[in-house]
Amino acid sequence: GKTLAILTGGGDTPAINSSIEAIRNRASFLGYKVYGIRHGWKGLLADGDVLDLTCQPYDGFYGGTALRSSRTNPFPSIKNPDNRVPQILKNLERYKIDVLVTIGGDDTNGAARLLHETEGFPVIGFPKTIDNDLRTRTLHHFNGKAIEAVVCPGFPSAAKGVMEYAARIRTTAESHSRIIVLEVMGRDAGWLNASASFGGAEMALVPEFEITKERKLVFLETVRENYLRSPKKSLVIAVSEGVRWYDDATGKVDVMYASKEVDEYGHARLGGIGAIIASEISNKLGIEARAETCGYYARSGECRLYDRRLTTTLADKVVDLLLREDYGQMPVLSHMVNFQELEEFNTTSIDMGQVGNHPMPKEYYNIDKFEVSEA
Ligand code: F6P
């Protein structure tokens, strides 16, 4: 029989174990021996860190990834010029792996695509991101217009968490007549932050729309008006960690870094913009504002039902790709489903070359009001 191996890379989400379990179950039914590679691409370096998952009990509802993760990318980069692909190929051969399924975002699946394109290795990509910024060319009908949108495994669970978080802190904001600035993960895309609005956050700042010097003045004025108009004299403002915000001190619109340390890809750790915005609101408007960081709360915890259905449905498409020996593909939804309800899913697959970053389109955001547009 053939052997299929699964690896998980990049940041964790609540839906990864569900994806692993669903792919494992289906591949075993097809007669594959199923391996799990630990710590992402790193588990294919050195002698390999590989487990047999074929008959192991597996809890798909438990969050995170039991296979663990890393941000290692075997292809040469500016930070790490070594080409570690030969070692990867050696281990794929050592463990007699016929097909590799990579559960990841842009980076993990980008490396998988290169492995397929340059070495002809059979790979299938599987989407995973809480940021929901993986381009999949899915069309969503929004306010009468068909626009490109995505629902990636991990996002629905994370969005639910952000929604609940925003809904909860409201009672404290109301009790103290305060403004709470809620900082939500999202380096380049505001999808996750936008879900705080479904939890009642009145205003939102997302990375897609930069806050210049002029816009900042309008923003502060809008905050004042909204606060004074609110029945309980309180506001919840959701802010993406990656928002581009005008810095009075430097006169530049920039992403605020809490840390200047960068990881192996040159990514700095984000965080701290919520506190900066809250203090500017307090100082400039004289309204008490506090910052709150949602952070890993969004990314952690159990897989929600929506993600469970999404991952199992996309895993059905993996079966289809395996049977057709159609590699270099990634299963995606073929139409957008109502985010709030569980509806029928339809799937298709796209060439992994089409996978890329996908910001939130302008239709979703009202830049004049600093609000997420109503569907
Ligand atoms: O890509 C998911 C994400 O949560 C981003 O929103 C965030 O910028 C990044 O990962 C932070 O990752 P970590 O804390 O693991 O470095």
Protein architecture, described:
This protein has a five-stranded mixed beta sheet, with helices on both faces. It has a four-stranded parallel beta sheet with strand order 9-10-8-15, with helices on both faces. The protein has a two-stranded antiparallel ribbon with strand order 6-7. Helix 4 packs across helix 5. Helix 6 links the parallel strand 9 and strand 10. It is α/β, with parallel strands linked by helices. The radius of gyration is 22 Å and the shape is elongated. The chain is built from eight helices and 19 strands. The chain binds 6-O-phosphono-beta-D-fructofuranose (F6P).
Short description:
With 375 residues, the protein is of the alpha/beta class. It has helices at residues 16-29, 85-94, 106-119, 155-175, 191-198, 213-229, 273-285, 305-324; strands at 3-8, 33-37, 50-52, 99-104, 123-127, 138-142, 145-149, 179-184, 203-205, 235-240, 244-247, 252-255, 257-262, 268-270, 289-293, 329-333, 347-351, 365-366, 371-372. A hairpin with a 2-residue loop joins strand 6 and strand 7 (145-149).
Which SSEs are present, and which pair or pack?
Blueprint: E1 3-8, H1 16-29, E2 33-37, E3 50-52, H2 85-94, E4 99-104, H3 106-119, E5 123-127, E6 138-142, E7 145-149, H4 155-175, E8 179-184, H5 191-198, E9 203-205, H6 213-229, E10 235-240, E11 244-247, E12 252-255, E13 257-262, E14 268-270, H7 273-285, E15 289-293, H8 305-324, E16 329-333, E17 347-351, E18 365-366, E19 371-372
Parallel strand pairs: 1-2, 1-4, 4-5, 8-10, 8-15, 9-10
Antiparallel strand pairs: 2-3, 6-7, 11-12, 13-14, 16-17, 18-19
Helix pairs in contact: 1-8, 4-5
The protein binds 6-O-phosphono-beta-D-fructofuranose.
